[in-house]
Design brief:
It comes from Aphanizomenon flos-aquae WA102. With 183 residues, the chain is an all-alpha fold. Helix content is 58%, strand content 0%.
């Protein structure tokens, strides 16, 4: 029986130790190259084409992340959101859609609450409802946001402070004018 070399030539040998590169040999990840103007224009055209559909779907309760993931085009969530926020009118329409989405989610909450759950499902349903309520408060602060009211009791009197200030003014105005006699 032949005993072969445990590490024959041409095979990859994996070491359990990782070898770190010296700092002078390693460099940070390079920045991604900027898109040419034509590519950016094409991308913005795609954004414009899908914006109306996005607004419509957000009104119906879908999230922007889900919409972009389901789209056949590969569109970056961050880039699309930046594009939306660049134009105040677009951004306002998007915020309106998010606020209106809360009405859709209110319907979902009622469905979850009215569903026939087993005892194990009750905690899950409670979590779903609490999450939706929190999102509704974040998206539509005017209607569903948490109202924090701070009551301040007590009185503050500034009469003593005003009297002290008045005394300082009077003292500053009084000048001791004693004639100096030159000899």
């Amino acid at each position: 029986m032949e005993q072969g070399n445990p590490n024959p030539v041409g095979t990859a040998v994996a070491s359990e130790q990782s070898i770190e590169l010296p700092s002078w040999l390693s460099c940070p990840d390079p920045r991604p190259p900027k898109l040419p103007v034509e590519s950016r224009q094409l991308l913005h055209t795609q954004y414009e084409q899908m914006f109306e559909r996005v607004i419509e779907q957000v009104y119906r309760g879908r999230s922007l992340r889900d919409l972009l993931e389901d789209d056949y085009r590969v569109i970056s969530y961050e880039d699309f959101l930046k594009w939306v926020k660049r134009d105040p009118m677009r951004h306002e329409r998007f915020k309106e859609a998010q606020e209106s989405r809360t009405e859709f989610i209110a319907g979902e909450i009622l469905e979850i609450a009215d569903a026939e759950d087993s005892i194990e499902d009750v905690q899950r349903s409670k979590l779903k409802i609490d999450t939706r309520k929190w999102l509704m408060g974040a998206w539509n602060k005017k209607r569903y946001g948490e109202v924090k009211q701070v009551e301040v009791a007590g009185s503050i009197s500034i009469t003593e402070a005003l009297q002290q200030a008045q005394m300082r003014i009077v003292e500053a105005e009084v000048m001791d004018v004693t004639p100096r006699l030159e000899q």
